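Risk register update: the risk of archive-format incompatibility is retired. Evidence:
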Amino acid sequence: MSEIADNAGRCVNTDTDVAAMERRLFRSMCVVVVLAVLISVPLAPWRVTTGLLLGGLLSLFNHHWLRTSIRAVFNSTLAGARPRLNAARYVLRYFIIASIICAAYLLDMVSIVATLAGLCSFAVAVLAEAVAQIYFAIAYREET
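Archived output:
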């Protein structure tokens, strides 16, 4: 019980922690995409490599677009203005991504499975962040 009382006054996530986590997620996504492409170059056909690259780039684009949209909504809300967030912006993002994938697939430039695997770079980055957070929680836990 003393551990709970010791932690009662602490804020769990500060703004700097969230910003650092966002940077780590983006960096992890970049590393995952680069590693996947570098590994696939000598081992897989070129359509797989281009599919991984396209999916990874679209994943980075999607993450950036979502992050900036959400930040704009919260900044306008904090400023006292009514947030202007249309559902069309979210749907538009997915239509753009789907049309790029469809065009690349119809031009026979990518493997659709590899493209979907490249789009999963965010999931791999989140898992890496979770493992890092578990490690830091165990390694630097508070001694009583």
